Amino acid sequence: MPAVPQATSFDVVGSHPPAPEAPADGDAPADPLAVRYRLDRSGRLAELTVGGAPLGLTASGSGAEADEAAVELVRATADEVELRIAGIRHRFTVFAGADAVWVSTSDGQVALRERPRFPDHGADAAAGSLTAPLPGTVLRVLAAAGEQVAAGQPLVVLEAMKMEHEITAPVDGTLTELPVAVGDQVDGGQVLAVVEDAGA
Which single residue of 113, 142, 151, 174 has CA 20 to 30 Å from 40? Predict the structure, then answer.
């Protein structure tokens, strides 16, 4: 079965000794650390990118010589990862805490918090917000911000999963926000429009 590239990102939420990318107490988190990897058909690490920088990989078992940046996954369990980097084995102990994962190395420890792969854009949305049911593309915008709209009136048409999804006004009111335009790519849960209830 062909391996599919996987991607995730982490916030660096602490380290010992303090690392330059780790925020001080009370500071906003630093830029997220993006990790992308792919395994080959045999389950070996075939691609690894950390923070946007590709790491060289050995062609394990093929007779290819490791270059000075080559990385090979030797072993991985829930609490330990072992890599061979430029021919030298490195062991990383992993501890999953309540709100972060601590990784211990010979240089110290770092605490990472995985970011949600599918952020909930609607979690902090204003009352009356209409959100995208799925990731997709805005096909049509059928109203303008500031207009009075009626319950059931189509406001936005979204194409997702090769189907059209009509976003309609839930109540009579004023279309106070319309932050999308035709052709926009939107995430599932992203706010497409806000309708202020006329009876509120």
Answer: 113
